[in-house]
Design a protein that fits this description.
Structural class: mainly alpha
Distance between the termini: 21 Å
Order of helices and strands: HHHHHHHHHHH
Largest sheet: none
Number of strands: 0
Length: about 220
């Protein structure tokens, strides 16, 4: 850990902003959000709490910055996915994999759940949520619309179906992160997501599922 922190230091000995965000996400994944304080993060990084406050101002803003940083990386992956020469059903499968948490300790989803609770009293968080959600919504709409255009999906209202599917994925993801899977292995979440997607986004008549959407999955992040 100390070596990793040193790798994120500038020549003047200060820790880079990106390194702070990386370490914050690692701390959330390891110990949860409750134990993440400015002083604890500073100790992990070998710097001062004041140095972190200089960059972020408060814990809420640190958490928001960490979420934005994580979502920016995912947005790049989404755009790359949309540009791949794959049938729309296969791209939808990969989109679902990208959206879902990797397990109960997924730091990105832990942050989302924490920030959702704070949004009603924080206009800045509310605006950030809308902005980040819009990226997922717009990209899923584009994927569905192209799938209809190319005859992979049956005709549908892309904005409405995208919104419905994302709402279902939010609920499923929250259950995974909170450990409320009713005793089921969390690895069943992708299968549940695919089942929901199949109901909301039917294939075009006569489209063969095995040919259109191979079952082999890409490695998770």
């Amino acid at each position: 850990m100390a070596g990793a922190a040193r790798a994120g230091r500038r020549r003047d000995g200060s820790v880079t902003r990106e390194r702070m965000l990386e370490e914050a996400m690692a701390a959330i994944a390891e110990d949860g959000l409750a134990t993440l304080t400015m002083s604890a993060l500073a100790e992990r990084l070998g710097t001062s709490g004041g140095h972190i406050l200089y960059h972020f101002g408060s814990k809420d803003l640190l958490l928001l910055a960490a979420l934005r940083w994580s979502e920016t990386a995912l947005a790049e992956e989404r755009r790359a996915l949309l540009g791949r020469r794959l049938a729309a059903p296969r791209r939808l499968d990969l989109f679902l994999d990208l959206y879902l948490p990797r397990g109960p300790r997924d730091p990105r989803w832990t942050l989302w759940i924490e920030l959702w609770a704070r949004i009603p009293a924080n206009p800045e968080l509310r605006a950030a949520q809308r902005e980040l959600d819009a990226g997922w919504q717009e990209d899923l709409e584009a994927l569905l619309a192209k799938g209809v255009e190319r005859g992979h999906f049956a005709p549908l209202d892309a904005p409405a179906r995208a919104s419905e599917l994302l709402a279902l994925l939010d609920g499923l993801s929250t259950r995974v992160v909170l450990g409320q899977e009713s005793g089921r292995d969390t690895r069943s979440a992708p299968d549940a997501a695919r089942a929901a997607a199949a109901l909301l986004i039917p294939r075009a008549e006569g489209l063969s599922s095995p040919e259109a959407a191979p079952t082999a999955r890409a490695p998770r992040r």
